[in-house]
């Protein structure tokens, strides 16, 4: 006997969860959404808080409270901020949820940039960039060519995850060294000196993801 068909009116589960332990998304208040949108537009315009506050004719303290959703600014203040950002007033009220950042990079189209280690034959392709959020995430595809040399003096803020794609390397972190091949992963505190110590099999490729707190202007 065939199983009974589900009613079209039967509701799906209210929430689907992933394996992540990240907390649920909290709905922003109007003030928080407005502040987040202003901060996003300011950063896109490459303005510091002091620059925007001066152009809008308000104090830096007031701008900080607006961006952090701590006050409900008057329309005249918002008009001044909009003019300083060269955007219509309506754009300031665009909901923050509708403008969640997303970055898509086609294969082979990462931006090649200069970083410490570049002179040692290490090539860095930045695979994405987000303007908003409290954390900065920098994903790099790193290639060590035949002329690459060891470099173990990287040291900076944040946490780094390395995932080997090809080649073999002995990667040093602090006083420990780890031999890595395709499929191996290493995650560590970036404040300790680190970097490729022995280049066993070149060329090599690995994914490096660096996460650190965003600094407010």
UniProtKB/TrEMBL annotation:
Residues 38-92 form the HTH cro/C1-type domain. GO terms for cellular component: cytosol. Residues 1-25 are annotated as: Disordered. Keywords: DNA-binding. GO terms for molecular function: DNA binding; DNA-binding transcription factor activity. InterPro entries: Cro/C1-type_HTH, Cupin_2, Lambda_DNA-bd_dom_sf, RmlC-like_jellyroll, RmlC_Cupin_sf, TransReg_Diox_bact_type. The keyword Transmembrane does not apply. CDD domains: cupin_XRE_C (cd02209), HTH_XRE (cd00093). Pfam families: Cupin_2, HTH_31. This is XRE family transcriptional regulator. It comes from Komagataeibacter swingsii.
């Amino acid at each position: 006997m065939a199983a009974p068909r589900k009613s079209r009116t039967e509701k799906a589960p209210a929430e689907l969860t992933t394996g992540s332990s990240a907390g649920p998304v909290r709905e922003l208040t109007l003030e928080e959404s407005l502040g987040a949108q202003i901060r996003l537009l300011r950063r896109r315009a490459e303005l510091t808080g002091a620059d925007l506050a001066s152009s809008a004719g308000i104090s830096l303290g007031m701008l900080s409270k607006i961006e952090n959703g701590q006050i409900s600014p008057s329309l005249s203040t918002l008009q001044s901020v909009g003019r300083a950002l060269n955007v219509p007033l309506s754009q300031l009220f665009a909901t923050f949820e509708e403008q969640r950042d997303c970055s898509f990079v086609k294969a082979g189209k990462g931006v090649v940039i200069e970083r410490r280690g570049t002179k040692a034959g290490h090539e860095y392709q930045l695979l994405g960039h987000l303007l908003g959020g409290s954390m900065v995430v920098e994903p790099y595809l790193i290639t060590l060519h035949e002329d690459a040399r060891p470099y173990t003096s990287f040291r900076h803020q944040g946490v780094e995850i390395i995932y080997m794609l090809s080649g073999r390397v002995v990667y040093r972190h602090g006083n420990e060294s780890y031999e890595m091949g395709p499929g191996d992963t290493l995650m560590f505190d970036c404040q300790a000196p680190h970097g490729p110590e022995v280049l066993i099999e070149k060329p090599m490729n690995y994914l490096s993801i660096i996460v650190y707190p965003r600094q407010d202007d």
